[in-house]
């Protein structure tokens, strides 16, 4: 009972929202990433690249994604709307940081997030119950086949650490995003696993603005799962 009470309070808390944004910017600042320009990406030493505040843009993008997740956890469809916008920005940043698969994977995420916006309108605040576990198994297998397949094409057969991490994180996020369309609590279990993998990918890519964010997400996913489990019908 106490755990449920704590989870509900943190899930609704505006202060916890603010904490997440603060963590993103503090992590980016102390890593030295916050003030990086575009020359630190695959763009290289183009004359104009040094005038683009890539680190700040990345931190703002991370904050946008964070608020999307927080609002979805609060059962607000506005989180899905923000998620559509965040997908475009995050995909661009991921590509610039060396994830060649982003050009294939993020458009799929965009479509799935867009579907969530429209489906949630039909649920009228209801958290649904998973009625078919075989459907979940098929979704997971299908997401991993699509995720690894698209990234293999994007990386042109070059199998390395970024390839595996990009494929794993996309497969997990695709599964979770599809479950979000269905609006069932199981999506949060996949988000927790996803955040572990994203934390590893952020470290490998040097995208330190995301490190603190995904640590925060791990806790947030746990709170949201507990709250949604209590509210499912």
UniProtKB/TrEMBL annotation:
Keyword Lipid metabolism: no
GO CC terms of this entry: membrane
Pfam families: NMN_transporter (PF04973)
GO molecular function: nicotinamide riboside transmembrane transporter activity
Subcellular location(s) per record: Membrane
Principal subcellular localization: membrane
Entry keywords, A to Z: Membrane, Transmembrane, Transmembrane helix
Keyword Membrane: yes
Membrane topology: Multi-pass membrane protein
Domain of life: Bacteria
TM stretches of this protein: 14-35, 103-122, 134-155, 161-182
Name of this protein: Nicotinamide mononucleotide transporter
Source species: Weissella minor
